[in-house]
C-alpha cells in the first residue's frame, strides 16, 4: 500500500504529490499491463492512460484507496487493449500462429538455461490463456506479490472468491504445464 499522504489543493492532488503517486505506482501498473498484454509498447500506453485517468478524476477518487483504484483501472484498460488487439488482428486464442508469435516475443536471454527459458515461455503462454479474472489474480499474487485481501479489494471480489479462482488457476497451470515436464518428454 502506498504510504504517501497527499497534499490537496481545493480538493485536487497537488502536482508534486501527483508526481510522487506516479513514480511510486508506475512500475506495478506497467508490470500488470505487460503481463496481461505481453507487449511492452501496449503496456506503456496502458500505463500512461491509467495516469491520465487518475489526473482527470482525482477529485472523485479517495486517495486513501488510490492503490486499488489504479490497479483496477490498469487491469480493465489492459484487458480492453488486449480485446481491441485480438479483434483488430482477428486472432482466436486457439490459433497456432498467435501462440507461436507470443512464444517468439518472450524468448529469454541466451545466457539463461535452455530448459528454463522454454519453461518460462510456456508458463507465460499458459498464464495468458487463463480466463479473466484468474489471469489477473495469478499475476497479482504470484508475480506482483499482493496479499489476498489486496487482490480482493483491487478486483472488487469477495476474498473467498479470489482464493477459489487462484486455486483453480494454479490447478489449470499445473495440468497445462505437466505436458512439458521431463517425465513426459
Q: What's the total helix number?
A: 8
- Measured between the Cα atoms of the first and last residue, the distance is 44 Å
Helix content: 55-70%
Beta-strand content estimate: under 5%
Strand order within the widest sheet? 1-2
What is the mean predicted local confidence, pLDDT?
Answer: 78
User: Which runs of at least 5 residues are low in confidence (pLDDT < 50)?
Assistant: 1-10, 91-96, 108-112
CATH architecture of the largest domain: Orthogonal Bundle
Number of domains: 2
Q: Output the CATH topology of the largest domain.
A: Rna Polymerase Sigma Factor, Chain: A
CATH classification, class level of the largest domain:
Mainly Alpha
Query: CATH superfamily assignment of the largest domain?
Result: RNA polymerase sigma factor, region 2, helix turn helix motif
- One letter per element, helices H and strands E, the order comes to EEHHHHHHHH
- Main sheet overview: 2 strands, antiparallel
Structural class: mainly alpha
* Number of distinct beta strands: 2
